[in-house]
Amino acid sequence: MSTNEQTPLESFLEHKADTSMQCGNYSIDIPKPKEGEQYRFHFDAVACIGCHCCEVACNEQNGNEADIKWRRVGETQSGIFPNVKNHFNSMSCNHCIEPECLIGCPTNSYIKFDNGIVFHDDDSCIGCQYCTWNCPYEVPVFNADRGIVTKCHMCHEKLDVGQTPACVQACPSGAIAIEIVNVKEWLEVDMANQGIAPNLPDIDITKPTTRYTINETADMTPADAHIIKPNHSEWPLVFMTVLTQISFGGFAALVLGEFINLLGFELAAPSLWMIIAVFLPAAIGLPLSALHLGRPILAYTAMKNIKTSWLSREALALGLYAGGLTLLIALFFFEVSQGFRFIIELGVLALGTYGIYAQSMIYRIKARPSWNKKETTKIFFYVSYIGLLLISLILVLNEQFTTAGVVLPFALFIAYFQYEEFKKQKDFYVNLDEKTKNFYQLNKTKILYETHFDKHTDFRARSLYVGALGLPLFAMLLLASGNYSTTVLVLTLSLIISFSSEIVSRLLFYKTAVAQGLAGNFFAGNQR
């Protein structure tokens, strides 16, 4: 061999040196970010060969199991057979300028370092997994063994000592690199052009910093477009949300009754047993939510981020609401004056109203299009009709028939609005158009409703019509005719059917939610 000839390895090493490629290097020659700058990833889609070495290296570096993926490779396809092309996107945390994971975290477990790296503090995490919903890229990963969420931290401990992050070092084609970005310049000039890639979420949600090099922006189909699977059931949250909303509805009816009674109308005033009846759903539901957590024993820390987290606000408001109901039980027991009691009731009602509103806002997030609607808030509040049905039943049992005849129309009125929301949702998916924003995710939700859960949807329609509308109307007729024993039976049946209907509806709410996420993410691991 001539001394001028090079082996392939020597040629590759020389190419790396000439192009300043970071792959294969144990050290990284990059300055520390100055004020107004931060680290970021650069991904070259032209160079990526889809080998998944970056995934393996990341797992090895951080000691993660195979299903805990901080970096994932998504695959998309373009063209028509036989002229089909494969495209890859290797993604870990985008270390966003406005990270939704940090904003929504109830325990302040996310920290954005001065160098821009979004770091997760494992010790303070309670495993609520709210960040896994909030992140439009599905970056945070729930580690069931540890009961917490974990994520990419750009191998910050290696960067601090001038070493190359694992994914960058392992990439055989130099498709991943670390760069310094001027945040102001990125936001104002470059992000709209260099921060986007096909099939990724809207950059305005979190303002990601990853820079992309791509050579084709033609229509690309995610390679997992044919995979449509239901989401997690979230049973603790199903029951917690429905039960607290029932409690709120029943208590709102009691406060209204107290007010009418104070005005001088001769209707039944709220009683101790009524307060206990509306307290019990909240007392059962709120502790159930802790079963959703990976570390339930730390549930009390969920109120740390009142400033930006709707989950913290919900936890605080509904916790105080339940505490207020406890206080009212004592006030009723000791027969405290009605006027003073009413003032306390108004405060507790305000807490409950805000608590249910905050509860709905937890789900109105851009990363989950099927949740991100004002209808979510309406549906949550309209569940309160069951609370009114409960109060009506107690009134009949206490032989307060006239007052029950006043409450029942209110229950029927709210139930009608709930039924209308159900019809509106059904019509939305029936008439779903390809021009609708987030059509890809919403269409998958539609398919889930129509194929996987068609029987559940049918039950929801029939049970609403019978339990929430038909039976309460029948109970009103029975009450007016003086057939009180049958009224009790009908109202009990109405409560059971309506409660079952709302449980099924809430289950479908969770099961049919399709995240934006990473297109073609076959190997999602524990991403939710």
Give the overall form.
elongated
The main sheet orders its strands as 8-1-9
Largest sheet: 3 strands, mixed
What is the percentage of strand-forming residues? 5-15%
Helix coverage percent of residues? Answer: 40-55%
Report Rg.
28 Å
By DSSP, the count of extended strands is 10
Question: Roughly what is the average pLDDT, rounded to an integer?
Answer: 93
Distance from N terminus to C terminus (CA atoms, Å) equals: 56 Å
Give start-end ranges of low-pLDDT stretches. Answer: none
Helices, by number, come to: 17
Description:
The protein is mainly alpha-helical and 528 residues long. The chain contains 17 helices and ten strands. It has a three-stranded mixed beta sheet with strand order 8-1-9. The chain is elongated, with a radius of gyration of 28 Å.
Can I get a quick summary?
The protein is mainly α. The protein has helices at residues 8-19, 53-62, 100-104, 130-134, 156-159, 166-170, 183-194, 235-262, 272-288, 310-333, 338-361, 374-382, 385-397, 401-430, 439-452, 454-481, 484-511; strands spanning 37-44, 72-80, 83-91, 110-112, 118-120, 141-143, 148-150, 176-182, 211-213, 221-222.
Which structural traits does this protein have?
single chain, 528 residues, mainly alpha, 3-stranded mixed beta sheet, 3-stranded antiparallel beta sheet, 17 helices, 51% helix, 9% strand, elongated
